[in-house]
Amino acid sequence: MTVEVRTVEAGELNQYADGIREVYARAFAAPPWDEDPAGADRYAERLARDALRPGFTAAVATAGGTVTGFATAWITPEVFPADRSYGQVAEALGPRRTRGWLCGALEVNELAVAPEAHGTGLGAALLHAVTGPVPDGRCWLLTSARAEAALRLYERTGWRRVDAPVPGAAALVVLLGPRHPRRAEAGGRG
């Protein structure tokens, strides 16, 4: 079956909402995420709010009308947030790198692929769909250092780990996109 990956506008997300929720539930049920089904419900609610963020973009993969993966991203505000894991990221990078590397850059928020589509190149296609159009290449993301398959995907597609451990029990790692102008300064692997 042919898989189609396409970018979608915030207003189009509702038609994919059930499929996105299902993929999220299945993709993040396993370690290191261990999300329960209620986590997918919370994500669906959060996605409706996230779609209102400046610079929001999304890509959806479908096969025969069924959602098989998705990615979401938005522009990180010029005033770096302090909620969620942002405070820990700012602490790890310091104010100069946080402001120069992340503020105003495209932040990949979620990338999820149905387990049966792992290893097919779908994750890379979704990632490219949301980051490829960024004219200056300034893209970044945050993931768990325990998400080994995700890290392999990111590094295989040219993302580079920032050599600055993010404090906290979650073992998070920041990655800069393959065309990020500060990528060479990041140190790390990739």
TrEMBL record:
Protein name: GNAT family N-acetyltransferase
Domain N-acetyltransferase per the UniProt entry, residue ranges: 3-181
Gene3D superfamilies: 3.40.630.30
Pfam families to which the protein is assigned, alphabetical: Acetyltransf_1 (PF00583)
SUPFAM superfamilies the record matches: Acyl-CoA N-acyltransferases (Nat)
GO terms assigned for molecular function: acyltransferase activity, transferring groups other than amino-acyl groups
PROSITE patterns listed in its UniProt record: GNAT
Keywords of this entry: Transferase
